[in-house]
Design goal:
The protein is α/β, with parallel strands linked by helices. The protein has 20 helices and 26 strands. The protein folds into 3 domains: 231 residues, Glutamine Phosphoribosylpyrophosphate, subunit 1, domain 1 (4-Layer Sandwich); 187 residues, Glucose-6-phosphate isomerase like protein, domain 1 (Rossmann fold); 141 residues, 3-Layer(aba) Sandwich (Rossmann fold). It has an 8-stranded antiparallel β-sheet. Strands 5-6-7-8-12-13 form a 6-stranded antiparallel β-sheet. A 5-stranded parallel β-sheet has the order 18-17-19-20-21, with helices on both faces. A hairpin with a 5-residue loop joins β2 and β3. α3 packs parallel to α4 and α17 packs across α20. It binds 5-amino-5-deoxy-1-O-phosphono-D-mannitol.
């Protein structure tokens, strides 16, 4: 969380920082601010609560002229969303921005008697105070002495009044990447932000300090030794065409799904069979495990739930799906026969990263399914399979989810083959059904006006339920999260057979119900459950498949027919239909669909 940028070079820094903060805004958009070293060598701060466009507004037609500076977009952790709490913070000689959480900030405040000079309620200002306390003319010494006092996670970018054109940075867990080019040296929270200068970059190692001015970038370890960075090359294409004519990134990203699913699967299918040789995933790890455990959060965790159905029904292997934030506190049973799969779009979600590290310490083999190249989780994993969703900008995850699912289908098929659960012919049949998904998803997209009409039915609802069984329930958990996060309507996904054990008490004519019926063996039972809510006055919007030809259509408020696929594959077209449903509700309510309140795209606090 929190977007960070630091730059020193020959560009006019104010404009460059503001442009980059706009790109990083998806990391947090409560407040924004920059610090610039002006032509007199004075560090000047401009910041405010609100979006980057409001910060830009503060400049009017004037700028602060200078070539070195840093910028921040905030996702509030300590202290409300106010101008004072926006970063950068200043204490004595120090100006500082921060991503992360300092857990012992209260003790530090007391210990170094910082209270009298504080202007904000943030943990960040305390860090500036601690560095100022240790500063006696040597920035590196002050940084080193300070960070060993900090408990928590941090990416800190620091400017010293005495060295106004030098940018210093250090991190623990929270990411910082660094890049050099003829135009200057740059560091940021995201690879995408440094890639605008050069595709070559390095990840700042934990507890190492960067010293960066116009001429050079130097990297020091905590003992003060200068070390060589490991240079990486980004093969990450930035989406150049913005929203591509759509009003929101979310709509654009939903519409891209046939193409990105295709891209994710095509290079991994040879003669109708799945291969992960280009990803360097060995058959041994797929063969030798006797248990699988997925760790992930939010939408990525919901992809894991579909993976669980695949693993258990196709492979007959036990799979747990754990909320990454709960994983290590549940004393998980894992050993060297366990394959732990981390799923993450950003590859930076700290809960997932910490769960993965825990699993490694317990001896498990680790594999991650990641969208962003070179992300922290990818670097920590024994094996990585990248999805080819491309940059996902909207906070609500859509194309990352369906490409994660595509990888899970491929992985299931490869495991079935190497474990001898299915023969080659059976695997080919499975894969050929997977290859139909881009076309089936496209058919849903073509009928999106119908889904828009259904969405209008819930615009005024305060609460909704989404009901189904089996795989339909897994799909609805994700559909319900989508609706909650962007429309602010309370939505509960419920296993429809469980309603009668209590929750049906909440069903009235004021609680619209979304029902999903795509699974042949569950159809009749699901229909009975739907009739039970209808009898309590609920208006039902039914998503089902063409071939089911549900009778008594006029009983339901609206029906959407999904194109037919084999039961296990209905997840993909059905999920896309629910993404569109949530999208239209949010857009019709007039919300900023891409930046829902209180959220951020990359979650780097525990
Ligand atoms: O980057 P990750 O996939 O690890 O992110 C996990 C969740 O934070 C993310 O899926 C979140 O739930 C989305 N906002 C859902 O749309």
């Amino acid at each position: 969380m929190c977007g960070i940028i630091g730059y020193t070079g020959n560009k006019d820094v104010t404009e460059m920082l503001l442009d980059t903060l706009e790109m990083l805004e998806y990391r947090g958009y409560d407040s924004a601010g920059i610090a610039v070293s002006d032509t007199d060598g004075k560090i000047r701060i401009v910041k405010c609560a609100g979006r980057v466009k409001e910060l830009r507004h503060l400049f009017g037609s004037s700028q602060i002229n200078g070539n070195s500076g840093m910028g921040h977009t905030r996702w509030a952790t300590h202290g409300g969303v106010t101008d004072q709490n926006a970063h950068p913070h200043r204490y004595g000689h120090i100006t500082l921005i921060h991503n992360g959480i300092i857990e012992n900030y209260r003790e530090l405040k007391e210990k170094y008697q910082l209270q009298d000079m504080l202007n904000s309620e943030t943990d960040t200002e305390i860090v500036a105070g601690v560095i100022n306390h240790f500063y006696n003319g040597d920035p590196l010494d002050a940084i080193r002495k300070s960070v060993v006092k900090l408990k928590g996670t941090f990416a800190l970018v620091i400017m010293f009044d005495d060295f106004p054109d030098t940018i210093f940075a250090i991190r623990n867990v929270s990411p910082i990447v660094v890049s050099s080019s003829n135009e200057g040296n740059v560091l940021a929270s995201d690879v995408a932000a440094v890639c605008q200068f050069s595709k070559e970059y390095f990840v700042l190692p934990e507890l190492h300090t960067i010293v960066m001015n116009r001429e050079c970038v130097l990297l020091y370890d905590l003992s003060g030794e200068c070390v060589e960075p490991d240079i990486l090359t980004a093969d990450w294409e930035l989406g150049q065409n913005g929203k591509g004519g759509f009003p929101f990134y979310m709509e654009k990203e939903i519409m891209e799904q046939p193409e990105v699913i295709q891209k994710t699967i095509e290079g991994r299918i040879v003669n109708g069979l799945p291969f992960f040789s280009k990803d360097e995933v060995t058959d041994e790890i797929l063969k030798e495990c006797n248990r699988i455990c997925v760790v992930a959060c939010g939408t990525a965790m919901h992809a894991g739930l579909v993976g669980q159905v695949l693993a258990q029904s196709v492979l007959g292997i036990h799979m747990d799906v754990e909320l990454a934030s709960e994983f290590m506190y549940a004393d998980p049973v894992i050993d060297d026969q366990t394959l732990v799969i981390a799923i993450s779009q950003s590859g930076e979600t700290i809960d997932t990263l910490e769960a993965l590290k825990y699993a490694k310490r317990a001896g498990a083999k680790t594999l991650s399914i990641i969208n962003v190249r070179g992300a922290s989780i990818a670097r920590e994993s024994d094996y990585v399979i990248y999805t080819y969703a491309g940059p996902e900008v909207a906070v609500a995850s859509t194309k990352a989810y369906t490409t994660q699912l595509s990888v899970l289908y491929l992985l299931t098929a490869r495991m079935a083959l190497v474990r001898g659960v299915l023969n080659e012919g059976e695997v080919r049949t499975f894969i050929s059904e997977l290859q139909r998904t881009p076309e089936m998803v496209d058919q849903v997209l073509q009928k999106r006006d119908q889904i828009h009409k259904m969405a209008r039915r819930v615009l005024d609802a305060r609460d909704t339920f989404m009901i189904g069984r089996g795989l339909d329930y897994s799909i609805l958990l994700e559909g319900s999260l989508k609706l909650k996060e962007i429309s602010y309507i309370h939505s509960e996904a419920y296993a429809s057979g469980e309603l009668k054990h209590g929750t049906i008490a909440l069903i009235t004519d004021k609680t619209p119900v979304v029902a999903m019926v795509t699974q042949s063996r569950l159809k009749d039972k699901e229909m009975s459950n739907i009739r039970e809510v209808c009898s309590r006055g609920a208006k039902v919007m039914l998503f089902t498949r063409e071939s089911f030809q549900i009778s008594g259509m006029d009983e339901w408020s609206e029906v959407f027919e999904l194109p037919d696929m084999q039961d296990l594959f209905m997840v993909l077209p059905a999920s896309v239909a629910l993404q569109l449903f949530a999208y239209y509700v949010s857009a019709d309510k007039g919300y900023d669909v891409d930046k829902p309140r209180n959220l951020a795209k990359v979650v780097t606090v525990e």
